[in-house]
Amino acid sequence: xxxxxxxxxxxxxxxxxxxxxxxxxxxxxxxxxxxxxxxxxxxxxxxxxxxxxxxxxxxxxxxxxxxxxxxxxxxxxxxxxxxxxxxxxxxxxxxxxxxxxxxxxxxxxxxxxxxxxxxxxxxxxxxxxxxxxxxxxxxxxxxxxxxxxxxxxxxxxxxxxxxxxxxxxxxxxxxxxxxxxxxxxxxx
Length: 188
Hints:
The protein is α+β, with helices and mostly antiparallel strands. The chain has one domain: CATH 3.30.830.10. Helix 1 (23-33) runs parallel beside helix 2 (35-43), helix 1 (23-33) packs across helix 7 and helix 4 (80-86) runs antiparallel to helix 8. It has a 4-stranded antiparallel β-sheet. Helices cover 54% and strands 13% of the residues. The protein has helices at residues 23-33, 35-43, 71-78, 80-86, 91-105, 111-123, 128-139, 143-159, 168-177; strands at 6-12, 48-53, 59-65, 161-165.
């Protein structure tokens, strides 16, 4: 039996009317290296906490790794929108998040990685102009993008699907606090 959990929550932002903008990459970096890191990793004791967004599917997801908590982690995910509204990044945090986002978009690549990236871009019909637009949007990201994106995170809070891999005891405890909220499926 595991003493830790893997806690995930996700929803489609496109279902909420979101139109993709490169600022999402910056916001993801900001949450991942600040809010989620501090609340779930540092204070909560999880080995890792992440958020991700797929431009192709519109899915925004949160995940934690080797997490001793369950409901507290979900509360932290759910408070992310309020955090963005109340704590937009200062200039130094914004610049750091933009630099991190650019590093994710244009990482150093060895020849095999360049070939793979080229293949993926070809298969998904991603043009050089689209990639440049993404870069431009990332570089133009400001505090107003964070406040606006908070509404999308509220959509995840209200409509997200939750999946937890963890001990039966932790799941039963969560269900005792929120009756019949999680369906427990034993896989081993």
